[in-house]
Design goal:
The complex is a heterodimer of chains A (330) and B (260).
Chain A lengths: L5 E5 L1 E2 L2 E2 L1 H17 L3 E7 L3 H4 L9 E6 L8 H15 L3 E5 L2 H13 L4 E5 L1 E5 L2 E8 L4 E6 L6 E5 L15 E4 L12 E7 L12 E5 L9 H11 L2 E4 L1 H5 L20 E5 L5 H7 L4 E5 L13 E3 L3 H18 L1
Parallel strand pairs in A: 1-4, 1-6, 4-5, 5-12, 6-11, 7-11, 14-15, 14-16, 16-17, 17-18
Antiparallel strand pairs in A: 2-3, 8-9, 9-10
Helix pairs in contact in A: 3-4, 5-8
Chain B lengths: L1 E5 L2 E3 L21 E3 L1 H17 L4 E7 L4 H11 L3 E5 L9 H15 L3 E5 L10 H9 L3 E10 L3 E8 L2 E8 L2 E5 L11 H7 L4 E4 L16 E6 L8 E3 L3 H15 L4
Helix pairs in contact in B: 2-5, 3-4
Classes of the chains: A alpha/beta (330), B alpha/beta (260).
Chain lengths: 330, 260
């Protein structure tokens, strides 16, 4: 039913549904239950028809598919137009996207096209007095905004990766419908000509569930090997502080913080990181923060849940062995 | 080439926020305001573009906000921008990203542009919407999170950062480019630059001057409350020999925190 329904903009890359889509289905399903509406998804891409029905396992009732060569690679213009068509068709009260590179790019442009509000980077979403209420970090996580979109519809929100749970995959297949998207590939002005993957197959920092991060105390680029070794054992992605990047120990793509990436893992392990305010800005929302630092007065301790006051070069090898032992037990 | 840069004045990164009694705003008293750090990359890229394209290229800086934002416009003028526009109107006091974008787009249109530069986001609200919303209002392509740019008088090639890699994009002008760290190294304002900036034209535009009604900038988003997030930290700090501290930490991570 119009206005009660929740529409999620599912994400895929290379035809594979991304985890953020399941997180969207999880929170989207909860909101739809409260509004008494249906959970509908729009899936945009090339050759994605086959993957669409499987979204049903995560609670999606219906998937509108915009499939074609125009959507092989992401373009703001093509994807926003298709998403807007889906909104026009479903007339949802709420639209959710990921706060991913794609979702952030798409959601803001879509919100302006629909002349409505957008809660970026939501870490909490609920229905209060019949309206969507979002909680979002601002000022680099030092404050939170509680926001609503009082009048305009739909109410749009983007969600931070790793915040909302993936529901159990036990639902029936979703019904799949082809969306009349009206996108003409020839009319897209800004065209993506290539997507280049960074070296290493690990999860990107912004989506990683576990992060091992090194600071200036690593002393040299080659010493990041022990960070990699530890990360391999626990399935983590390696990050770095600005001090380590500025000293040339790690590339900027690995930088976490104000001018680097904002991360939100379940487990963050920081080694030899003092915890400058700019670094905290990028990782303070991590669920569990572990510090290893020689200096018992370093600012990182103000936000650490656990930690060892010691030399990282002594602690890390022992930690690798201990994690190996534990994980071998299962 | 007509180049426009959108800049915002934000609290500097060291700011310790204090929330007003009505919980809707931050106390401004103790805040030190600076140019939004990402906007410095935008100003630099605008100046580099002007230098590269040459001819009668101009750089116009546009900012919206209370009178104090004039300082930030002057900073950009001191770096080398040519003219400034300050958008100020009581109807914009509670402007959200929607209203801000409508006003900025109108000012850019009035000034005329071939390309618009802005930061990838402002570090205070962190909404990261105004860039895309301005591009949509003006119906021009947007290139967000740009880390590399090769611009000519008619179009360009850019690289932008996405999860796990980069996208390479080709686009025609006019377009909007939001700038990410790594794109360039912003220059400092020189002393002669600061002296010159005082004499550069800086216009103040209210909504009427932009041809907008108060209704056209009605906010879509409402901040109900601003709060300081709870920090429920356990604060377990282990000291001693690694043969004791390491097994203890791993045990805590498994049994108490349940993250391994």
């Amino acid at each position: 039913m119009a206005e009660k329904d929740v529409l999620i903009v599912a994400e895929q890359r290379g035809g594979t549904i991304r985890k953020i889509s399941y997180e969207l289905a999880g929170i989207g399903g909860q909101l739809a239950q409260k509004t008494g509406g249906e959970l509908v998804a729009v899936l945009i891409g090339e050759g994605v028809q086959g993957a669409a029905a499987s979204l049903g396992k995560y609670g999606v009732k219906k998937v509108l598919v915009a499939d074609g060569p125009a959507f092989k690679l992401y373009s703001t213009e093509g994807y926003v137009t298709a998403a807007a068509k889906a909104v026009e068709k479903v007339q949802p009260g709420i639209v959710l996207t990921g706060a991913s590179a794609l979702g952030r790019d798409l959601s803001a442009r879509l919100a302006q096209r629909l002349k409505t509000g957008l809660v970026t980077d939501s870490v909490g979403l609920d229905i209060v007095d019949g309206k969507l209420q979002g909680i979002r970090p601002a000022l680099s996580g030092k404050i939170q905004h509680v926001v609503t979109i009082p009048e305009s519809r739909p109410q749009i929100a983007s969600i931070r990766p790793n915040v909302f749970n993936v529901p159990e995959a036990n639902g029936p297949d979703a019904s799949v419908e082809t969306l009349d998207h009206g996108v003409d590939a020839g009319k897209i002005r800004a065209k993506v000509t290539e997507v280049r993957a960074s070296a290493g197959a690990k999860a990107d920092l912004t989506e990683a569930e576990r992060i091992v991060s090194g600071g200036r105390a690593l002393k040299a680029a080659e010493n990041f090997k022990i960070m990699n070794d530890l990360a391999d054992v626990i399935g983590a992605t390696v990050g770095a502080s600005r001090a380590a990047v500025d000293s040339g120990y790690a590339p900027h793509a690995m930088q976490i913080g104000q001018t680097g990436k904002v991360v939100n893992p379940t487990l963050y392990l920081g080694f030899g990181i003092s915890g400058a305010i700019q670094h905290l800005a990028g990782m303070r929302t991590s669920k569990v923060i572990v510090a290893v630092n020689k200096d018992p007065d370093a600012p990182i301790w103000q936000i650490a849940d656990y930690g060892i006051v010691d030399d990282l070069f002594k602690v890390t090898p022992a930690l690798i062995e201990e994690f190996k032992k534990l994980l071998a037990q299962g | 080439m007509k180049i426009v840069v959108l800049v915002k004045q934000t609290p500097d990164t060291e700011t310790k926020p204090k929330i007003t009694a009505d919980k809707k705003r931050l106390e401004e008293g103790e805040i030190k305001f600076v140019m939004n750090p990402y906007d410095e990359f935008a100003v630099e890229e605008a100046l580099k573009t002007k230098e590269k394209i040459g001819g009668d290229s101009t750089v116009t800086v546009i900012s919206l906000g209370p009178d104090r934002v004039v300082e930030t416009i002057r900073t950009a003028l001191a770096m080398g921008a040519d003219t400034g526009i300050h958008i100020s109107d009581p109807a914009l006091d509670s402007a959200d990203s929607y209203a801000t974008a409508v006003a900025l787009a109108a000012a850019a249109k009035k000034a005329g542009f071939d390309v618009i530069f802005c930061g990838k986001q402002a570090i205070d609200g962190d909404f990261a919407q105004v860039n895309s919303r301005v591009a949509e209002t003006l119906d021009i392509p947007q290139i967000n999170l740009t880390t590399k740019l090769d611009l000519s008088a008619t179009g360009g090639k850019a690289e932008r950062r996405i999860e796990g890699g980069e996208e390479l994009i080709e686009f025609p002008l006019p377009a909007l480019i939001s700038c990410e760290k790594g794109l360039n190294e912003p220059r400092y304002a020189s002393l002669p630059g600061i002296m010159k900036a005082k004499k550069k034209p800086l216009d103040k535009h209210d909504l009427a001057a932009l041809g907008l009604s108060a209704d056209a900038v009605k906010p879509r988003l409402q901040i109900q409350e601003i709060r300081i997030p709870e920090q429920k930290r356990r604060g377990v700090k282990l000291t001693g020999e690694v043969t004791e501290t390491v097994p203890k930490l791993v045990k805590l991570l498994r049994e108490e925190a349940k993250v391994i």
